[in-house]
Amino acid sequence: MIRPTIAGGLFAGFLLSAGLSATPAAAQPTGSATLDAVRARGQLVCGVSTGVPGFSLPDSQGVWRGLDADSCRAIAAAVLGDANKIKFAPLTTQNRFTALQSGEIDVLIRSTTWTLGREANLGLEFAGVNYYDGTGFLVKTAMGVKSAKEMDGATICVQPGTSTELAIADYYRVNKIKYTPVLIENLAEIQSAFLSGRCDAYSTDSSALATFRATQPKKEDFVLLPEIISKEPLGAMVRKGDDKWFDIVRWTYFAEVTGEELGVNQKNVDQMLTSTTPDVRRLLGLEGDLGKALGLDNKFAFNIIKQVGNFGEIWDRSITVLGVPRGINNIWNKGGLHYAPPMR
Ligand SMILES: N[C@@H](CCC(=O)N[C@@H](CS)C(=O)NCC(=O)O)C(=O)O
Questions:
Q1: I want to staple 83 with a disulfide (CB 3.0 to 4.6 A). Which of 5, 23, 73, 120 is the partner?
Q2: Any idea which fold 31-133+233-334 has?
């Protein structure tokens, strides 16, 4: 047993001293099938929605913008050192989980609610929450409705296969109110069905309703009803069984939150490289081997913040600009729920 090891060591030593290595670094297996595939491809494939303002929507140049799109970019920055090495895969409510199960995408960040059923039944798991949301209702101001409880006999447009569908069913059963769901999978179709009056209300995550309203030519024609009838924690999903990839996706989000907490942002991240604060030094890879522990470069968090921003910056550029208050989506020391464990 000893001889081949010594011989192997000598051989490897020879290759190294000759400036060669037995296997190119990029091809060395990392123990994560997804990480290996992403590196070999030189690109992250990220599943997003087909076009929700504030979350994932191509701009006039065809560049995907939004919280989910940037959450994807942060993973590309962490893993490949380049936030632009990414392909966005637009998915519907119905095909999003199969796209992840089949390996068509590496990660799903598509306003998807974390529920027990999804995590236990689909062979998939949630690696973090980027938006603490809840189901809401949008109606036309002209209807004069002030509450979701005034909707007896109403038709409600909702996308099938969503947790929204289930939340509405519970809510109206409890409140003994009859309504008719109008199930439409395609996003553009459901929105035009609502606008043209085929349904009295449009229900989905209140964030998406608020950003949809904000992007209408006359937003005052629409009212977001006051009731938020469910918890919809939206986050990143990965396949079960690839723990290293799970860790990478999870700690990418934690690095964004830690950046915000420590005041490290896109503008000052270069100056922060001279910081003497231990937490900042560890975050930016100046001390410790945090990146290496994840199978990444020690500069992974530096790359995320430099190229995409910290969590607050990502949030503000996508959500705050649409007039949606941060509320419970602030970081923990400002009264919100976004919290990262120690990065050490
Ligand atoms: N959070 C809910 C709803 C998700 C959902 O599909 N939301 C709508 C909000 S508009 C969406 O993203 N649609 C975009 C699309 O169909 O491409 C879930 O996970 O089931």
A1: 73
A2: D-Maltodextrin-Binding Protein; domain 2 (3.40.190)
Of 226, 234, 186, give the one whose Cα is nearest residue 208.
Answer: 234
Rounded CA gap, 331 and 89, in Å?
A: 29
Dist. CA 32 → ligand 1 center (Å): 29
User: If pLDDT is split at 50, 70 and 90, which confidence band does 29 have?
Assistant: confident
Give the Cα separation of 76 and 249 in Å (integer).
Answer: 10
Which of 159, 189, 234, 318 should be mutated for ligand 1, with most atoms under 8 A from CB? 159
The residue whose CA is least distant from atom 6 of ligand 1 is 93
**pLDDT band at residue 27 using 50, 70 and 90 as cut-offs:** low
336: buried, middle or exposed (CB in 10 Å: 19+, 13-18, 0-12)? middle
Span 135-230 CATH architecture: 3-Layer(aba) Sandwich (3.40)
Structure tokens given for 249: 């996706």
